[in-house]
Amino acid sequence: MKKKIRAISVFAAAFTVAVPTFMTFARAENGATFRMIVQEPRFMDPNRVDDGGITIQAQLFEPLAKIGKDGEIIYLQAKSIDRSSDGLKWTVKLRPDNKWSNGEAVTAKDWEYSLKRILDPQTASGNAQFLTEIKGAADYNSGKTKDDSIVRVRAIDEFTLVIETERVAPSFLAKLALPYITPVPQAIVKQWGERWTLPENIVSNGPYKLVSRVNDQSIEMRINPYYSGKKPTISAIKMTVASGDICEAQLRAYEADEIDFATCIPIQDIPRVRKDPVLSTQLIANAESGTWWVQYDNSHAPWNSKDVRQALGLAVDRTALSSVVSDGTAAVAKTIVPPGIPGSDENDAIKGDVDTARDLLAKAGYPNGVGFPPFTITVRDSDSQPIVAQLLQQMWQENLGISASINVMELKAFAAWVNGRKNAPYDVLTALWVSDYADPENWYGDLITDDYRNSHFHNEEFAALIKKAKAATDETQRIAAYQEANKILEEQQPMSALYRESTLWLVKPYISNLRPDTTLRLYPIRDAEFLK
User: Fold this and answer.
1) Are residues 273 and 196 in the same domain?
2) 1: in domain
3) CA angle (150, 123, 223) in 5-degree steps
4) Global model pTM greater than 0.85
5) What are phi and psi of 424, to 5 degrees?
6) Is residue 197 located within the same domain as residue 184?
7) Which residues, in sequence order, are bridge partners of residue 237?
8) What does DSSP say about strands 428-434 and 375-380: parallel, antiparallel, or unpaired?
9) 97 is in which domain, residue-wise?
10) Residue 9 located in a structural domain
């Protein structure tokens, strides 16, 4: 395909010199500072973080628990989480030895304050959606009332938190274990207001504490001496903030022995890295429970036409696209919800080819693309999305005769722009969703019916099925409702699945025990160590 060759030539900037093996091992003797590159976080406030900044916050703040690979709950700040016999009341017992980085106890009052703060519309937290099952939370978060006492979260003693839900909610335990749901120190937030996250003010409950931050330049952390969990063996973390493409910045720094860990590789360099005798031994591939897709604004023409959406979805050569953006390390995505999530079924994918797509576009009133309005594909400037946009642009032009322009935005600006589309029209964008927790509600509910990515998709039959699934107490009936919803989602095509990527890491050989943690592929540096 012509586009494949052109896309690679435009973005090719491969490095040709590998770092000698003896240089990589030298770093282990230079101290105990773990070095890496990150993107500038939108927020340092854990109650507000809703993007890649969670990888930073996960070192500083700790949730109640996490869900292990086999679905078991692993307690962190919690000692236990119990549900009442009627399924509507959750009692959380906190570990009494939990401490903030200033040595003061983390109390149930801090947790009550934090959960209500996430739900406060003034906080404008994207993570409020994970807590709206709490009794009174939806009304408070929507602004129907300003009285937070209606939110049924109560600290009944210093280390016991009781939460009541509106309905039986089997997935609520997994939500309580989300890395997004962490406490903030009530006294510190009230004392400093918006300035509470500055290095000189911030107090955290995780394995590390923030000691320095220079906006758009660097973030530094050191061990929290009061942390009650497993003590880190790495005493300090130095995060350099990338400008431009973070994958390119990471690979350059990794090969120059300036960092110890890279979280991604530029697409043009993947073949070279995989063949390099040194780098290939340091490469780790982590399959994602997630999907990249192209999304349409379902609220207005021409995107409110199912025929148009299906036509554009069928006109994409996913095999060619995934090959270009990943050198074959990404899997073609036939459906939005990935395999492994109950309800997902790749047999529900729409059937057809380019000829089918042309027929559908003609049926929608645009034969051979005639009369189809010019439109814009908006993408972030990272994760190969400018290349994805170019491929989509050409495929749709060649296969359907429709014309698109491309708008590339810096990641932080793109995230703010997407969040601002709740009531603002757009044309097309590309987006990613990675499972926050391995339950269908995270996809069909949090993503679609709660419209987290602002696709503005509304379908009464789909919504009724999700409502039924959320209220179901029988697991078989719950999953059956999601299975029916999946058929509607794929038939309606509010977005068209593209590919499922594997996260490609590079880890220096003197680092051990740095492993992905949770479905979000977070990496607790607490568990890593320098080999001697």
Assistant:
1) yes
2) no
3) 110
4) no
5) -120, 130
6) no
7) 34, 221
8) parallel
9) 61-189
10) no
